[in-house]
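Tutorial handout. Part one gives the primary structure; part two gives the three-dimensional structure as tokens.
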Amino acid sequence: MITITSLYLPNESRSHYQNAYYFLYKILKKHYNHEMHYEMKESLEWTLTPLPNDKVQMIHNQTNEHHETFFMFFGYYDRITEKFIWRNNIIKERIKQFILNNYNIIEYLGVDSCFTREIFSDSVHIKEDDHVIIPTFIRMFHGGLRLVRRITDNDENKMFYYALIRYNFRDYTKFDKFMHGLTLYKNLLFIYMNPNIPIYQDDEENSQNIINITAQDITNSL
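Part two.
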């Protein structure tokens, strides 16, 4: 059974969940613009030819330097249908289980969040400007790999293809800042879902420190 979900956010009249997602989108798009963009730009200096068994041949466009390394094409975005589509269920589950098994992602995203379930649907309906949050989210949990994007030349049916590659392109990611952003998102979602309940934050002196904070405070902190 193919599962399709929507992370397509309207410009106005968003629900509480959608408002929280909008904040999460801003976090992920900021990492894309400030970190992923430079990582992928460096990969454009190479011609990449996929090989069987999750391999790729790399040839530098100027020096003709050759490499063969790990390469996993995991999904693509279709501008016409406005959908991000995973390559197949095996790849999707492989990435999903890696994140769930190695990170306390449910704690960071909040127990009320459906984001993990929705992003790992077979097909995700999402705006073109927002779709970069999906490959960015995947890349942030794979510190030993780098993100690669290729775009087809057909302007009438432009496709964005994404893969993870094992190569020492410069790592621009700020993982601690990313996890801090997820914590802010969790707090924001809690506020939207429980407007009359104060939230707490652990610290070294007082594990029940009440924070007088609003949704606007969190949004302004980004």
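Part three, for discussion. The CA atoms of residues 44 and 148 lie 8 Å apart. Residues 203-211 have pLDDT under 50 and may be disordered.
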